[in-house]
Each structure stands twice: as C-alpha cells, then as structure tokens.
C-alpha cells in the first residue's frame, strides 16, 4: 500500500501533470500526466521489495504466520489497484483491455 506521505505528492503531481496535458496535449504533457501515478506505483513496489528483503524478519514478527515474501505479493498487487479502478470507471476501456488479454 502507498503511504500518505507518498500519496499526497502523487496527487499533486497528477493534478499538475493532467492540467498541463489537457491545456496543451502533447507527448511531454502525457508523461507529466502519468508521473503522479508512477510515484504511487513506485511506493507500492518499494514496499514489496522491502517485504521481500525482510522475509525472515517479517515471518518471525508475525509469530511465524506469514512471510515477507507472501506479503510482497499482496503489496505488489496493490500497485495495480489504481489502474483497475480507472478501468472500471470506463467500461469501453475495460472491454478493450480484457479483449486484448484474451487474445
């Protein structure tokens, strides 16, 4: 999961990049538009990597219940959440995405 510390700047970057892109659409503006999302994804990926590196520590900290490696997969899955949420709001995009995966 992305912490509030990482999420707030990501929102600001997304708002600024999106405003820039929609005022004057071009490839640079599109990159700025996506920058905020990249920050959020990077946070989830960094958390996943930390969990993996601390595999044994996490395992013992949870009373030998769950490993850092297992939690790494959960954290990495959360990186996909913003994309999935956006696709769910646009059924046409979701249909195209699912169709391309099925092929």
Short synopsis of the structure:
This protein is mostly helical. It has helices spanning 4-23, 27-53, 55-61, 68-89, 91-102. Helix 2 packs antiparallel against helix 4 (68-89).
Task: State the shape.
Answer: elongated
Q: What kind of sheet is the major sheet? A: none
Report the span from N to C terminus. 31 Å
Question: Taking all residues together, what is the mean pLDDT?
Answer: 76
Low-confidence spans: none
Rg (CA only):
17 Å
| Strand content bin | under 5%
Global structural class: mainly alpha
Number of helices: 5
The succession of helices and strands, N to C, reads HHHHH
Helicity level, as a percent range? over 70%
Question: How many strand units?
Answer: 0
Feature tags:
0% strand; 103 residues; mainly alpha
Question: What would you note in describing this structure?
Answer:
There is one protein chain. With 103 residues, the chain is mainly α. The protein is built from 5 helices and no strands. α1 runs antiparallel to α2. The two termini are 31 Å apart.
Secondary-structure blueprint:
Layout: H1 4-23, H2 27-53, H3 55-61, H4 68-89, H5 91-102
Helix pairs in contact: 1-2, 2-4
């Amino acid at each position: 999961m992305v912490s509030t510390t990482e999420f707030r700047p990501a929102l600001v970057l997304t708002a600024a990049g999106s405003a820039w892109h929609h005022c004057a659409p071009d490839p640079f503006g599109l990159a700025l538009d996506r920058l905020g999302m990249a920050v959020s994804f990077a946070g989830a990926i960094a958390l996943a990597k930390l969990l993996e590196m601390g595999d044994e520590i996490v395992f013992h900290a949870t009373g030998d219940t769950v490993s850092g490696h297992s939690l790494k997969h959960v954290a990495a899955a959360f990186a996909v959440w913003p994309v999935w949420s956006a696709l769910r709001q646009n059924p046409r995009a979701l249909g195209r995405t699912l169709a391309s995966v099925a092929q």
